[in-house]
Amino acid sequence: DQQVKQNSPSLSVQEGRISILNCDYTNSMFDYFLWYKKYPAEGPTFLISISSIKDKNEDGRFTVFLNKSAKHLSLHIVPSQPGDSAVYFCAASKETSGSRLTFGEGTQLTVNP
Amino acid sequence: DAGVIQSPRHEVTEMGQEVTLRCKPISGHDYLFWYRQTMMRGLELLIYFNNNVPIDDSGMPEDRFSAKMPNASFSTLKIQPSEPRDSAVYFCASSRYNEQFFGPGTRLTVL
Questions:
Q1: Is pLDDT at A52 greater than 70 in this prediction?
Q2: Which of A87, B9, B57, B99 could be stapled to A106 by a disulfide with Cβ–Cβ 3.0 to 4.6 Å?
């Protein structure tokens, strides 16, 4: 049962344009959501998060939007830079599960110069 | 802080051999997680600890896999005997709240 899904395995955008990565979840008990970025031969690194009491969180070029009714979240990167090329994972957690995260399958983002 | 430390970074072994992966979490973090990443299954949680106690090991694939956390600064993941299908990248992560911090991973190849 894949409770967190990233339906796009890959995304390619031009430098300077907006990148939009999408994530859907099925478990309505999830109340905290995170995005991680992963470069080859490295571990995933935390990027940005959002609590279910918010619908938007912004950090520099990165903004995460949460639509609880649709059980959907998205990560916007603007402007996109070649260094953003990486695999992006969304993850979700339930307050009652402590720190345990459920990850999506990941989306490979390629930003072309 | 040095972050989560994993060793070795690469391990090549032959089928049937015992493999031990090591992890040092970030000081002060009371959760520790072991993940495995493969092309087929993505990033899957194997087991996690809270305050050195295993909380959920339902992701451990078989009895060949075992994990221990003898103290707050050290954990091991052991595979005995190893099989070619165990070839993957194994990550350790630690956390205090919701954000998990990952180590660089151990790339395991079982021939």
A1: yes
A2: A87
